[in-house]
Amino acid sequence: MAKVLKKSNDISFTTNVLVTKEDGLFVAHCLELDIVAVGETFDDAQREIVSLICAQIDYAFTNDNLDNLFHPAPPEAWQKFYKCNEQVERKYKIRHSMKNRTNPEKIIPPWLITKTCEPPNTFFYA
């Protein structure tokens, strides 16, 4: 069993995040889960969306509810994401706040990888 747990450290959950600026706020949209976070700065929005994504993953895996995890964003959001010239990849540790009651040995991905399409010039983006 130790080998399986050791291998689980290589498992990751990857999402695409589109960040735009609307009405003076940064809006981060996770395209696979169709969830949105807002912040006054790019970093605030990024931090909030990562927190929401991690909570969704933790809850879905802990409660064997993967069927309800994915809700793709509308096609327009995906089109904006794929028009992005550069996506920045970041890796985050998923902190598990829940225990799996039905299967305590179930592996939950320890890493979240986000591919983020950021505004072209975050500081001057209008």
UniProtKB/TrEMBL annotation:
It comes from Desulfotignum phosphitoxidans DSM 13687. This is DUF1902 domain-containing protein. It comes from the Bacteria.
